[in-house]
Amino acid sequence: MLKKILIANRGEIAVRVVRACREMGIKTVAVYSAADRVALHVRMADEAYFIGPAPSTESYLNIERIIDVARKSGADAIHPGYGFLAENPEFASAVQQAGLIFIGPAPEAIRLFGDKMAARERMLASGVPVVPGMEQNLTSDEAARKIADEIGFPVLIKAAAGGGGKGMRIVHSPDEMAEAMKTARAEAKSAFGDDRIYLEKYIARPRHIEVQILADHHGNVMHLGERECSIQRRHQKVIEESPSPIVDSVMRERMGAVAIKAAKAGGYTNAGTVEFLYDQDGRFYFLEVNTRLQVEHPVTELITGVDLVKAQIKIAAGESIQFQTDISRRGAAIECRIYAEDPENNFFPSIGKVQTYREPGGPGVRVDSGMYEGGEVSIYYDPLIAKLLTWGPTRIEAINRMRRALAEYRISGVKTTIPFHIAIMGNERFIKGDLSTHFIAEEYPNGRLNFVEDESLMQALAIFSCVIDYQENRKIQPATISKKSNLNRWKMQSRW
Ligand code: ADP
Fold first, then answer.
1. Secondary structure of residue 380 in the 3-state scheme
2. Can you give the pLDDT at residue 489?
3. Kindly report the CA angle at 6 between 213 and 310, in degrees rounded to 5?
4. CA atoms within 13 A on the CB side of 104
5. H-only helix segments in 135-176
6. Could you tell me if the CB of 163 is within 6 A of ligand 1?
7. Which pTM was predicted?
8. Residue 466 in this model has a pLDDT that exceeds 80
9. Do residues 164 and 236 touch, judged by C-beta distance below 8 A?
10. Of 16, 120, 145, 292, which one is the catalytic site residue?
């Protein structure tokens, strides 16, 4: 078994890994940049080492420095978290060459799935359904137009090295092709240093449904069911849940079997996610494999009871996943990503000191966060403050709990996406489970919040605004409190 793990990450995911290690009796080594000297992950780990200035290129992306710290601290393995170096095959190789264990898949699998064109090709050859399209690098717009004609407009131009929704362009007609190719290629070049682009059918109003898998070094691969991640902004997930409201047990096994086939075809090991697009006719297509722990992994943990980080560590140490034979699924779980962003101002990042910070609690609530009162949201990193999750025996109970938990959450000093989540939790279409990746664009055009006239929702918002206003010692704006609400400042004062 592993004795000491270095965590090459920061924020909530570093804290998450420390927690798993502590429960397993494994020592932890944190690394930190100049911006993170007093960060929570630094305080929680057994040891912490400074690795460089705030910009991630000089700290959390500095492979040599991180491996050097791992060696000096006597760690026997490195957990990369997500983001930063998590999907960098050179890092995984360097870790192995240093005689350490990389807690993730082999560099070859990371490389294969990191190249979307190569992954499509491998999947096609293995009989995994992929979105109709082509696997070659697009060089001329003439060739691209010809393929697009064959598969039918609209089509999507994507970057082979894509990630984070970058380098994608929708093309509705042949005359848009040349311009779209040019901009997609330029964006791919600047974001990934790789300007290869390809083309696939643009699926109309799909749902994003992904399957969590675990694969050990003994040839065993299992799936842990799906997560629906259709609530997205600019192709980035905002809310995730499991089970998907549209997936029944038959579909779950079908998708699970395809995910296992995809993992086996790519020689995958450790925890991973196979992403699918699910179209309006109930067909699903392979989109990509994320070769790491996903941000939204706790959704699966809440309904299966499996600790995915512990599973990752055990697999990396050579254990068989037969330790996970008793998987059962119970109830429903939802995750809201709480960002320091202003939903009233087109989700502009809200940087600065978090003055008030109190997390919600009570039955069925989980908060994964790296924040604390007095902590900073830094301009250098992703402004994710926390992942708020709720579990309920049914989806509607999980939603009601989420509304309650969102209203309990107290954050001041920075703007957050909490009001946006409250709006979605009260949205009729969301409640019905009528989802697609266009949900936010359709329901909140121009990024504006149009709250439904729902008394309990308004009350939740009123509580939230009241607390914030009270904390900041400002006068309460009448507009933020529902007329029907009987909450006043004095009641709030004694209550909180
Ligand atoms: P990235 O790796 O940049 O996140 P993905 O391939 O995972 O890119 O796609 C991200 C999101 O973009 C998907 O969840 C979906 O909303 C949208 N998308 C990607 N490919 C298609 C497609 N062919 N048709 C429709 N939407 C797509």
1. coil
2. 47
3. 35
4. 32
5. 141-151
6. yes
7. 0.91
8. no
9. yes
10. 292
Rg (CA), the chain: 23
Alpha-carbon span 95 to 407, nearest angstrom: 43
Residue 49 identity (one-letter amino acid): Y
With vertex at residue 293, the alpha carbon angle to CA 288 and CA 295, rounded to the nearest 5 degrees, is: 90
CA-nearest residue, atom 19 of ligand 1: 287
pLDDT computed for residue 374 by the predictor: 97
Q: What is the DSSP letter of 433?
A: T
**Contact by Cβ (8 Å): 385, 377:** yes
Q: What are the structural domains of the chain?
A: 4-103 (3.40.50.20), 132-201 (3.30.1490.20), 207-443 (3.30.470.20)
Our answer to whether residue 292 is catalytic in this structure is: yes
Closest CA to 488 of 468, 463, 456, 471: 463
> According to DSSP H, which parts of 348-454 are helical?
395-408, 418-425, 428-432, 439-443
Asked if residue 288 has its Cβ within 6 Å of ligand 1, the reply is yes
Q: Which pLDDT belongs to residue 447?
A: 66
- pLDDT, position 332: 98
Tokens 């009601």 appear where? 400
Stretch 190-196: mean pLDDT: 93
Q: For residue range 59-105, what is the model confidence (pLDDT) as tens digits?
A: 999 999 999 999 999 999 999 999 999 999 999 999 999 999 999 99
**Two structure tokens written together for 289:** 């494999």
